[in-house]
Amino acid sequence: MTCREGCRKFYVFSRNWRKVKPMKERTLSIIKPDGVAKGLIGEVLNRFEHAGFQVVAMKMVHMSKKQAEGFYAVHRERPFFESVTDFMSSGPSVVMVLEAENVISRNRELMGATNYKEAAEGTIRREFAMDIEKNVVHGSDSPETAAFEIGYFFNALELVRL
Ligand code: ATP
Ligand code: MG
Question: How many whole angstroms separate alpha carbon 111 and alpha carbon 25?
Answer without folding.
Answer: 17
